[in-house]
Write a structure and sequence with these properties.
By secondary structure, this protein is of the alpha+beta class. It has two helices and four strands. The chain has helices at about 25-35, 35-45; strands spanning about 1-5, 10-25, 55-65, 70. A four-stranded antiparallel β-sheet has the order 1-2-3-4, with no helix packed on it. A hairpin with a 5-residue loop joins strand 1 (about 1-5) and strand 2 (about 10-25). The radius of gyration is 16 Å and the shape is elongated. The model has no long low-confidence stretch (mean pLDDT about 90).
Length: about 80
């Protein structure tokens, strides 16, 4: 899995790459929805098939800028 994100002016990006490990149980999904109103408004219930819980393993992350500078994010 790869996840890019950028500053508002796109001058710096954060790039994250790793292996996604999914959690299929409803327990984690219920706990996350209870603690986050925004997600609860989006997905409504923990059994919504669009709502997935995962963590990244074997990950690496870097900040990049337009000059080509690459700064690793420490684990």
């Amino acid at each position: 899995m790869r996840w890019p994100s950028a500053s508002p002016d796109w001058s710096v990006t954060l790039r994250i790459r790793g292996v996604a490990e999914f959690f299929p149980g409803l327990e984690q999904k219920s706990r996350i929805l209870e603690g986050n109103e925004t997600l609860k408004d989006m997905y409504k219930t923990p059994d919504n098939p669009l709502f997935e819980v995962f963590r990244l393993t074997q990950w690496e992350a870097f900040f990049w800028d337009f000059s080509g500078k690459k700064d690793p994010v420490e684990k």
